[in-house]
Amino acid sequence: LAPGVSYRRVLLKISGEALMGDQSYGLHPPTVARIADEVEAVYKMGVEICMVIGGGNIFRGLQGSAQGLERTTADYMGMLATVMNALAMQAALEAKGIHTRVISAIRMDEVAEPYIRRRAVRHLEKKRVIIFAAGTGNPYFTTDTAATLRASEMACEAIFKGTKVDGVYDKDPAKYPDAVRYDTVSYDEVLQKHLGVMDASAIALARDNNLPIIVFSLDEPGGFCGILAGNGTHTRVGD
Ligand code: UDP
């Protein structure tokens, strides 16, 4: 582990939208490559890395069901979207010579491994980056909940949620210039004030497992690496 780094194993959660660059839909390979750079920098610090990537850049269950698609079907479609994103991220990391595994919560043996907890732990010990795909495998959940669940199962020390902003604010900083960023905030405050860090089930699960969530900006080059080394603005959600 590089000096100054206090995390040995972490989970990076990013939304699907983080992969679309300036486009309004889908995957933007240069953006995927840029995020892979961020992961590579942390990987080189000796940190064991799991990733969960959303699917909102391709398909969202709620949106599909609002348009008349049956909800569970729409959610399965959303989960499949996350598999596409996971494969894109895997390719970008492997292009850098980093060994990875995509592990899917929905069996898809030709493209990804099935989820077997002990096997996943072994991959981390062997310094492979794991990309968890297909969320929790269940409709009515989100990839934020999947991130919290897998981070708990893998005994990650924290979830790093890479977003467009450098932390959690009391109101939307894009709309209100006087919005104030929290340095730290408790799970209960996030829930009570609907601070929109992650959905309520993900926050509750993180609280019950005492898993800190570090919210930081992934738009800053070197941001992920900096946060892990203890530099850069962020918000720590925890008790
Ligand atoms: N999804 C699901 N169960 C899960 C994870 C995801 O049904 O455990 C579906 C859900 O429809 C969701 C979509 O997959 O809208 C994409 O995931 P999410 O919205 O979490 O992606 P993000 O907003 O992070 O890009």
From TrEMBL:
<keyword id="KW-0963">Cytoplasm</keyword>
<feature type="binding site">
    <location>
        <position position="169"/>
    </location>
    <ligand>
        <name>ATP</name>
    </ligand>
</feature>
<dbReference type="GO" id="GO:0044210">
    <property type="term" value="P:'de novo' CTP biosynthetic process"/>
</dbReference>
<keyword id="KW-0547">Nucleotide-binding</keyword>
<feature type="binding site">
    <location>
        <position position="163"/>
    </location>
    <ligand>
        <name>ATP</name>
    </ligand>
</feature>
<feature type="binding site">
    <location>
        <position position="55"/>
    </location>
    <ligand>
        <name>UMP</name>
    </ligand>
</feature>
<feature type="binding site">
    <location>
        <position position="60"/>
    </location>
    <ligand>
        <name>ATP</name>
    </ligand>
</feature>
<keyword id="KW-0665">Pyrimidine biosynthesis</keyword>
<comment type="subunit">
    <text>Homohexamer.</text>
</comment>
<keyword id="KW-0418">Kinase</keyword>
<feature type="binding site">
    <location>
        <position position="172"/>
    </location>
    <ligand>
        <name>ATP</name>
    </ligand>
</feature>
<dbReference type="GO" id="GO:0033862">
    <property type="term" value="F:UMP kinase activity"/>
</dbReference>
<dbReference type="GO" id="GO:0006225">
    <property type="term" value="P:UDP biosynthetic process"/>
</dbReference>
<dbReference type="InterPro" id="IPR011817">
    <property type="entry name" value="Uridylate_kinase"/>
</dbReference>
<feature type="binding site">
    <location>
        <position position="56"/>
    </location>
    <ligand>
        <name>ATP</name>
    </ligand>
</feature>
<feature type="binding site">
    <location>
        <begin position="13"/>
        <end position="16"/>
    </location>
    <ligand>
        <name>ATP</name>
    </ligand>
</feature>
<dbReference type="GO" id="GO:0005737">
    <property type="term" value="C:cytoplasm"/>
</dbReference>
<keyword id="KW-0067">ATP-binding</keyword>
<comment type="pathway">
    <text>Pyrimidine metabolism; CTP biosynthesis via de novo pathway; UDP from UMP (UMPK route): step 1/1.</text>
</comment>
<comment type="function">
    <text>Catalyzes the reversible phosphorylation of UMP to UDP.</text>
</comment>
<dbReference type="InterPro" id="IPR036393">
    <property type="entry name" value="AceGlu_kinase-like_sf"/>
</dbReference>
<dbReference type="InterPro" id="IPR001048">
    <property type="entry name" value="Asp/Glu/Uridylate_kinase"/>
</dbReference>
<dbReference type="Pfam" id="PF00696">
    <property type="entry name" value="AA_kinase"/>
</dbReference>
<feature type="domain" description="Aspartate/glutamate/uridylate kinase">
    <location>
        <begin position="9"/>
        <end position="217"/>
    </location>
</feature>
<protein>
    <recommendedName>
        <fullName>Uridylate kinase</fullName>
        <ecNumber>2.7.4.22</ecNumber>
    </recommendedName>
</protein>
<comment type="similarity">
    <text>Belongs to the UMP kinase family.</text>
</comment>
<keyword id="KW-0808">Transferase</keyword>
<feature type="binding site">
    <location>
        <begin position="136"/>
        <end position="143"/>
    </location>
    <ligand>
        <name>UMP</name>
    </ligand>
</feature>
<feature type="binding site">
    <location>
        <position position="75"/>
    </location>
    <ligand>
        <name>UMP</name>
    </ligand>
</feature>
<dbReference type="InterPro" id="IPR015963">
    <property type="entry name" value="Uridylate_kinase_bac"/>
</dbReference>
<dbReference type="GO" id="GO:0005524">
    <property type="term" value="F:ATP binding"/>
</dbReference>
